[in-house]
UniProtKB/TrEMBL annotation:
<dbReference type="GO" id="GO:0051539">
    <property type="term" value="F:4 iron, 4 sulfur cluster binding"/>
</dbReference>
<dbReference type="InterPro" id="IPR039661">
    <property type="entry name" value="ELP3"/>
</dbReference>
<keyword id="KW-0408">Iron</keyword>
<keyword id="KW-0949">S-adenosyl-L-methionine</keyword>
<dbReference type="Pfam" id="PF16199">
    <property type="entry name" value="Radical_SAM_C"/>
</dbReference>
<dbReference type="InterPro" id="IPR023404">
    <property type="entry name" value="rSAM_horseshoe"/>
</dbReference>
<dbReference type="InterPro" id="IPR005911">
    <property type="entry name" value="YhcC-like"/>
</dbReference>
<feature type="domain" description="Radical SAM core">
    <location>
        <begin position="14"/>
        <end position="260"/>
    </location>
</feature>
<protein>
    <submittedName>
        <fullName>TIGR01212 family radical SAM protein</fullName>
    </submittedName>
</protein>
<dbReference type="InterPro" id="IPR006638">
    <property type="entry name" value="Elp3/MiaA/NifB-like_rSAM"/>
</dbReference>
<dbReference type="Pfam" id="PF04055">
    <property type="entry name" value="Radical_SAM"/>
</dbReference>
<dbReference type="InterPro" id="IPR058240">
    <property type="entry name" value="rSAM_sf"/>
</dbReference>
<keyword id="KW-0411">Iron-sulfur</keyword>
<dbReference type="GO" id="GO:0003824">
    <property type="term" value="F:catalytic activity"/>
</dbReference>
<keyword id="KW-0479">Metal-binding</keyword>
<dbReference type="GO" id="GO:0046872">
    <property type="term" value="F:metal ion binding"/>
</dbReference>
<dbReference type="InterPro" id="IPR007197">
    <property type="entry name" value="rSAM"/>
</dbReference>
Amino acid sequence: MKPYRDFSDFLRGHFDGKVQKITVNAGFTCPNRDGSKGRGGCTYCNNQSFNPGYCRPSLSVREQLERGKEFFARKYPQMKYLAYFQAYTNTHSDDIDRLMALYREALDVDGVAGLIIGTRPDCMPQDLLDRLAGLREWVMVEYGAESACDRTLELVNRCHTWADTVDAVNRTHAAGLPCGLHLIMGLPGEDEATMLETVDCINELPVDTVKFHQLQLVRGTRMASDVEAGLYDIPRFTAEEYISLCVRILDRLRKDIAVERFVSQSPSDLLIYPRWGLKNYQFTNLLHNRLAEARNII
Ligand code: SF4
């Protein structure tokens, strides 16, 4: 018995057989940096990833997917793929026809069975949602919500509110599309009670999946220089403490919501904190062991 519903359980409800996500960088930028939503970006976001060269992928969407497929196709010839538009804000354009052409390019690649589109909750115009809902292929939208606490969102310069997330999720669900949220645990000013309140707020929404990750303090960010200057500090957890928090999150989270992950890893040369020395799968194993002990299911 699995200790919680995970992303593969969610995918099994939508597809027969093996499905693999392939990440695509379609050359989008960020509205929280170019002035259309805000300037300066979120305080934890690394400027170094915003050099123009990085934002302009040299391979087309099709080429990226074909290359991604090569890796899996030999081992699993029947595998289906989801094109995951992950980098930056993948709906950030006033030109909806251009957006749809990029998504279509992905969907027309042999073996691609659907799309996952990552974006901000304040960047999903209804016209685009309607066009996505009109596609015959499977489409999911993933929103970077980060926290349900507006004070936190303001403090980290997200330039959107929780109300934007509520609105985007409700409209996405009403359009008939599966919807995921991305959340950060350990943002400045938040304690465990605030983080668990975010979980309660998620439970109120028609959300299908969530991704949690620990706040990472990364070199070159405004947050790193603020913390270094002593302007404020961030909540700090040992790996054990973070695992305990994840257990409490799972106790609280609605059971039909699938959890895709609890941790992510920035490159070691950029990461200031936390340096737990655990790979994602090692963290997941520790969490599963802890859950098994707590729930006595082994
Ligand atoms: S975290 Fe996302 S929304 Fe914030 S500045 Fe970075 S790319 Fe933009």
